Amino acid sequence: MNGGIDPTWGGAAVAAVVLLTLAISTWGLRISRTTSDFFVASRRVRARTNASAIGGEYVSAASFLGVAGLVLAFGAEMLWYPVGWTAGYLVLLALVAAPLRRSGAYTLPDFAEARLVSPTVRAACALLVVAIGWLYLVPQFQGAGITLAAVTGAPTWLGGPVVALVVLVGVASGGMRSITVVQAFQYWLKLTALLAPLAVLVVVWAGDGRPLPADLDEGAGDATWSTPFGGGLAGLADGPVGLYLTYSVIVATFLGAMGLPHVVVRFYTNPDGRAARRTTLGVLGLLGLFYLLPPVYGALGRVYDTDAGPDGADTMVLRLPGLMTDGTLADVLTAVITAGAFAAFLSTSSGLTIAVAGVLSQAVTRGVPRGSTRRPDPVTAFRVGAVLAATVPCAAALAAPGLPVARSVGLAFAVAASTFCPLLLLGIWWRGLTDVGALAGLVAGGAGSGVGVVAALVVDPASVGWGAALLTQPAAWSVPLAFAVMVGVSLATARRVPPGVDRFMVRLHTPEDVELDRG
Amino acid sequence: MPAPADPPDAAAGATGPTGPLPPSARVRVVPTARAAVRRPSRTEEIDAGTPLGEAYVRSLLREQLRNGLVAVAVLALTVGSLPAVFYLAPDLAGVRVLGVPLAWAVLAGAVYPFLFVIGWVVVRRAEAVERDFAELVAREAGEPGGGDRR
User: Where does the UniProt annotation locate this protein (chain A) (predicted)?
Assistant: First the structure.
């Protein structure tokens, strides 16, 4: 299946990335001494480094392997995923970035508690952070398994535990400071690992004199791979159902990015609100640069990987050099792409593990009174949380090797868009939000999008009717529902608006250089 | 709490119009007898939660919200309308830009610089709004002017 790829090259590439990551983490350990260093890198990360780090964390297995595979299998319709993942940062930049940083909270539960003064809303948010984080981690571990199996012939179960172990060593030793450096490095590694082989492959394609992928449509009846709403491609819905599905993906991705726990945690490492905005703009540029590449892989796959169905789609990027070239060139190109893919698994998993571990360790320490000898010190609690954060989804990935990688990541976005998006937007811009309203909205949005998670596991992927569409891609109705419930219940409980809300708005929105009482 | 988050502003509402005023808070709000003679600075108005201070903060909020919503509206009307456009005008599928199908040229290329440009405008305008706000509230706080200060 590897088209004669030498497994030692792939193995060497994986080993190199793992060793480099561990080396940088260890270096970070030496400079990360205080608790503040550990959690938020003491808030001294520069905008450019931070933007690379966020980009590195965000570009996951779904971006690196999944997008090209989806484009190959389902055509132009799938281009909406990377567009949405990038546009999500624009929405984040326009409405959330600076106020979120100025809130001074470290996690989403912290923000909820500071804004609404409610331990119950805090607990609900903590639960959601863990759920979204795990939902996002499972496909990372799955992708690692598939990749390792494809390039070295190792058993499929091995990749997940390997990534989990490296992540744990890095996270538990260095904390946020070293992770920031690792993530920033890994963005550029990923970009290079996708760009350099692509340049070679495009030259090969031009030399082969093969047609443009779009021209393959001619004579293929109505199976229009290169145009949206082509339908007839591997059971992709067309007509109004197809339009609904597209808009559901758009709603989930445009509004979901702001609610991803590993993205949000990064904003606290900015020195101030202005820097948070500039960092986000940098991320927008870096993502735009990166997402130019995977669709081209998808298009080349369309020309060369003619007989692979959706099953082989997730590994298409890794197989493409072997299909287009041979000998040492194919081995080297495959090794480079493999290294990039592993960087993707490692960086995204690290970020998610940190975010989930932070929330878990807060939950552990909160139960014990301050000053008690039984109260674990924060760094120990964080390390325990990290182990829990990584091993549970790793086990889940081993137990249920199911969904295509980009698909399950899409579900995490749908849950985030249906819960944290309304909480953040209303919490930041509307004084009328109450604790009861927020809780009701989180429950409504969480239940609505949770239906999608269950449906994705249960509903036959080949069914293309309205019922299946509404269940498996719920964002287009669950996000408006969550907003409506949050606003409606808040209006009905207007007397519960927390008394400190005016001072909190001053804190969220006024620039730091103006001397004001921010509570 | 292990995270170095700032403590929630427990007493913040004491001076706001929405909260009750505990007796001790009044001492903090109205400064010294000397200061009572002069007009309070604009930052003091905001700190005290007076109607004037509230108006400054509300106008800042309104400007920033409008800036953000305009960007999101532009995004929705341009990029967000593309699925509907392709759906309602299937003939567009046949259009090629330099040999590349239109949908690809837009969704796999042109859209990314476009998003960055919107973001760049958002940042510039948000920073301009903040500069204006900082100048506005500093205007009287910095200078003793007005002649009221004894």
Answer: Cell membrane
